[in-house]
Amino acid sequence: RSAKLGIPLPIGALSNRRSFAFVDNVAEAIITACENKVEGAYIVTDSAPVSTAYLYRRLLQAYGCADRTFRCPEAVLMGVAKAILGARANSFLGDAAFDGSRFRSVTGWSPSISLDKAIAQTVANSAPDIDRQQ
């Protein structure tokens, strides 16, 4: 929602690592697992880990906004985030990168939708009820 509104965020220097899985890719992975009669628990990711700053910049771009990230020392950013978000600050600013290669090697699956295409589809399907700040 922040990207849709074009809100500037102080995350430009953030170098955390986060994994993503687009819902259509997850559905394909589930079908692949069923078709291959895969047993056990696996992690499914559809791209290399990216930072929150990278993701936000890509979302801004997809919504037609210029880069509205700016640099703030991570310690200051974390302090402010903890004051605003409490314990959720770590979930937003921390690492959440996972290795999905085992599932890919066992099943031969690869995601059909790239992260950039997933972002574009997400933006295209988002509700038009919010006006952007230009």
Average pLDDT number? 91
Helix-strand pattern:
HHHHHHH
- How big is the Rg? 17 Å
Largest sheet, if any? none
Oligomeric state of the chains in view: single chain
Say how many strands there are. 0
Strand content: under 5%
| Distinct helical segment count | 7
Give helix % range.
40-55%
User: Ranges with pLDDT <50 over ≥5 residues?
Assistant: none
| Alpha carbon gap, first and last residue | 15 Å
What's the overall geometry? globular
Summarize the structure.
This protein has 134 residues and is mainly alpha-helical.
Description:
With 134 residues, the chain is mainly α. Helices cover 47% and strands 0% of the residues. The chain is built from seven helices and no strands. It has helices spanning 2-5, 23-35, 52-62, 74-85, 88-93, 101-107, 115-124.
Provide keyphrases for this structure:
single chain; 134 residues; mainly alpha
Describe the SSE topology:
Layout: H1 2-5, H2 23-35, H3 52-62, H4 74-85, H5 88-93, H6 101-107, H7 115-124
